[in-house]
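Subject: complex prediction, re-run

Hi both,

The earlier run crashed halfway through, so I resubmitted it with identical inputs.
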Amino acid sequence: MPELPEVETIVNDLKKKVIGRKIKSVWFDAPKLIKKPKPVIFVKEMRGLKIENIKRRAKNILIYLSAGKLLLVHQKMTGHLLYGQWRVQNKKPISSLRGVMQEKVNNYIHIIFYLDNGWQLALSDLRKFAKVILGSQREIENLAELKKLGPEPLEKGFNFRKFQQALCGKKGKIKQVLMDQSVISGIGNIYSDEILWLAKIHPFRPVNQLKNLELKKIFHFIKEVLKKAVKLRGTSISDFRDPEGKSGHYATRLYVYRREGEKCPRCKNAIKRLKMGGRSAHFCPHCQKL
DNA sequence: ACTAGCCCCTGGGAGC
DNA sequence: TGCTCCCAGGGGCTAG
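This time it finished cleanly. Structure:
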């Protein structure tokens, strides 16, 4: 599901709701989502910890806890961190009281953190790709998957020079490179399509053949698209939801993503979809020449 | 040391 | 209506 803007939205919302809260207990029904430590230990270790801070790194959510602990949550394709109140009945959470009501994301809750104010932080995930890892702050921050991440595109220090450096020596198609988390953090399939359409660059162009001017355009639209999407609280194509179960508003702004066959908003030619490494690239063959 | 491809899952939508 | 096939915003692992 989520790329940078969606994760950013979730983190900002959760900060307001759960910082300072204590975790009273943990419920789960999908042990495989808990990568470390073993689920039984995980539950025991989480109990009594206080949520001190929440940060985003790439598409990861980092929940800083008391006792120097850190919880990493990656939502992958269909994961959602939700804030609400549910009852567990027949070993499945059901919607109740306040929070997310009658949303389909409710049906897939697999982990619930019970907070000391009566509310809950829950992880729902239809496809069960999501993962949580608990460890010491040091341990988590040193995980290879975090250490290898490229720069954050919305950070002030991320200027054109840093962008060039990140791409330096890279091979392959520009779309794939933009989505490579070790090059730049947080861009996925939706926003890479949108960025490249705005920059008028064909997604299959080899990155090492792009001219300086073209790179500048891409750089410019990375910032512009991501900022706008954060402002609009992300894109809800199928099931992205914020912690209260509400949709984001960027979907209406999408120019090419999932618009195969529709008219290009610029030139009115038909938008095309091509497979690239198991994923779809959407683009306008007229505006974005190979 | 690379990269393409498979895989982890479940459901929605299109086409027949 | 129901079956089959393809699709899905991520990313780790493996085989070549």
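Residues 212-231 of chain A form the longest helix (20 residues).

- K.
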